[in-house]
């Protein structure tokens, strides 16, 4: 009988432990009003209004960022602090960026215990935390933060350690779940929607910066570079002499005396004439607007002729041009390498088997965002991954599937009516690519392809690939083919330039290439300006 009772007690105890293990340490679903359990900061800078609101298209409630361009701060204190030193800890919450996120944060701060007398109404960006986790996007920043504040056992100071190469924030307006799993073996895993996006080790310098364990040695701050330390690997040859026939004053270009004016050149015709079809607007006031002048158009007579206006001989490269002479460089006999201070033992170095995490005593949301419509929901702290997975499956997944189907239906409707928002962005980028100066000779053809793609949205990807291939091919030719593509010019106007004169080993013409590049760029800009330009979608 006694043995049976003992077995029963053992089974009940095991069941209670199992039930306890399956309970979250904290779970906030916002099914009830948050006032009373959450405290809104009373600091003057936090003017944003928090609201309990339904997620768009659902009956599920969450904590809503209701206004644009505001600072927000709200905090919830835990009944008991959650320790992070032993066992697995899962941090998880759901966020929906209902109006997108151009510039702002949607992360949570896991607050460490505060000093005695601290008031939750004083919560602000200076309130110390243990971990900051969640999405942040603005400008070039687009990441899911994971930041750990760790106290140095040597100095007693807290240091921020940032996860390196964190995952990016999903760009859509759907609900997403962010999960951080902290393991007792120093591993941390970052999941988005239940899918692992990053795995790291708290003690690895490759995963966190700065590293939790400081370097054993550091550069000596008192070490100074000797005055006679020479870091120049190369120096001008002191024995080199400028050749007698080196003329630094010779111009880079000279007039082509062999050029002749093309037959049929119209000396007395201007390149542009007044538009004969233009007329002065009826509301034009000569006293207020000045004397009206008809806009200019290209002279049609010049289109059939070799050219119009005063003919001038074209310029050609001067074969005698060498530029400013410079002594050639030689190995520096006094070169000692790049100086570095000597290493000394780091007084702040310490060894660590695992991070000394501070407990989590509260969770807070303290953000500054330019977007409204950010909805937080299903905030969880658990010591069992299965609990987090179960809540994700029950709360987030059904909503996400509904949102995804709605998104697909909207995209299909948009495709039937014309271009989707994504496709419009793609074509806007392609038009910008077509404006790249070195693609000027191909601009008309590229725009033809883009406009064809706008009329047939189903071939958007093919159009994108085609333009990118052209872009990369031309760029490759410029970088490795040695010759920049140029718009066709009239051969009668300017003779072909001879190849540049090679300089000998006695010196160099350092500014020659730079001047030629400047001239070539100027000519390209001139030709691009003169070339007729089609009207595209973005110009209508």
Condensed summary:
The protein is an alpha+beta fold. The protein contains eight helices and 25 strands. The radius of gyration is 36 Å and the shape is extended.
The count of helical stretches stands at 8
Tell me the structural class: alpha+beta
Strand segment tally: 25
Using the coordinates shown, work out and report the CATH topology of the domain at 22-218 and 354-395. Answer: Jelly Rolls
Residue windows where pLDDT falls under 50 for at least 5 positions = 12-21, 482-540
Distance between the termini: 93 Å
Largest sheet: 9 strands, antiparallel
Helix proportion range: 10-25%
Coarse shape: extended
Assigned CATH class of the domain at 22-218 and 354-395: Mainly Beta
Note the beta-strand portion: 25-35%
What CATH architecture of the domain at 22-218 and 354-395 do you see? Sandwich
Residue-averaged pLDDT, rounded? Answer: 84
Radius of gyration: 36 Å
Protein name: Calnexin
Biased composition (Basic and acidic residues): 219-235, 293-304
GO cellular component, one term: endoplasmic reticulum membrane
Biased composition (Acidic residues): 245-257, 265-276, 283-292
């Amino acid at each position: 009988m006694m043995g049976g009772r003992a077995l029963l007690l053992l089974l009940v105890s095991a069941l209670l432990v199992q039930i306890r293990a399956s309970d979250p340490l904290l779970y906030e679903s916002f099914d009830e009003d948050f006032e009373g359990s959450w405290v809104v900061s009373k600091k003057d800078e936090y003017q944003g209004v928090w609201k309990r609101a339904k997620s768009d298209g659902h009956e599920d409630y969450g904590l809503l960022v209701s206004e644009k361009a505001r600072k927000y701060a709200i905090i919830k204190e835990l009944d008991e602090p959650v320790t992070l030193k032993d066992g697995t800890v899962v941090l998880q919450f759901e966020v929906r960026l209902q109006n997108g996120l151009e510039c702002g944060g949607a992360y949570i701060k896991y607050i460490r215990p505060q000093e005695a007398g601290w008031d939750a109404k004083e919560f602000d960006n200076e309130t110390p935390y243990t971990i900051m986790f969640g999405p942040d996007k603005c400008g070039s920043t687009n990441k899911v933060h994971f930041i750990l504040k760790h106290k140095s056992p040597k100095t007693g100071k807290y240091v921020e350690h940032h996860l390196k190469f964190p995952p990016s924030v999903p760009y859509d307006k759907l609900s997403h779940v962010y999960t951080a799993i902290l393991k007792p073996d120093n591993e941390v895993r970052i999941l988005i929607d239940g899918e692992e996006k990053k795995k790291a080790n708290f003690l690895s310098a490759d995963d966190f910066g700065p590293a939790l364990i400081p370097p054993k040695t550091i550069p000596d701050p008192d070490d100074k570079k000797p005055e006679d330390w020479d870091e120049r690997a190369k120096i001008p040859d002191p024995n080199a002499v400028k050749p007698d026939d080196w003329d630094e004053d010779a111009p880079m270009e000279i007039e082509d005396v062999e050029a002749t004016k093309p037959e049929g050149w119209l000396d007395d015709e201007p390149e542009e004439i007044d538009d004969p079809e233009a007329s002065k607007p009826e509301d034009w006031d000569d006293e207020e607007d000045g004397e009206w002048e008809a806009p200019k158009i290209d002279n049609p007579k010049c289109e059939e002729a070799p050219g119009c206006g005063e003919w001038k001989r074209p310029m050609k490269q001067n074969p005698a041009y060498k530029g400013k002479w410079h002594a050639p460089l030689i190995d520096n006999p006094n070169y000692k390498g790049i100086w570095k201070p000597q290493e000394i033992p780091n007084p702040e170095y310490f060894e660590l088997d695992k991070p000394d995490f501070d407990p989590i005593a509260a969770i807070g949301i303290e953000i500054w965002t330019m977007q409204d419509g950010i909805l937080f929901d299903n905030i969880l702290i658990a010591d069992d991954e299965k609990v987090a997975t179960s809540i994700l499956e029950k709360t987030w997944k059904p909503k996400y599937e509904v949102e995804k189907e709605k998104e697909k239906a909207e995209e299909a409707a948009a495709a039937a009516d014309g271009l989707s928002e994504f496709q419009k962005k793609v074509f806007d980028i392609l038009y910008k690519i077509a404006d790249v100066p070195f693609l000027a000779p191909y601009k008309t053809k590229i725009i033809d392809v883009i406009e064809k793609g706008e009329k047939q949205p189903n071939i958007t990807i093919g159009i994108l690939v085609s333009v990118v291939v052209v872009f990369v091919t031309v760029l490759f030719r410029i970088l490795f083919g040695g010759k920049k593509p140029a718009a066709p010019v009239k051969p009668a106007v300017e003779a072909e330039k001879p190849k540049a004169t090679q300089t000998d080993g006695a010196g160099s013409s350092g500014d020659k290439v730079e001047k030629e590049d400047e001239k070539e760029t100027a000519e390209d800009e001139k030709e691009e300006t003169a070339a007729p330009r089609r009207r595209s979608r973005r110009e209508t």
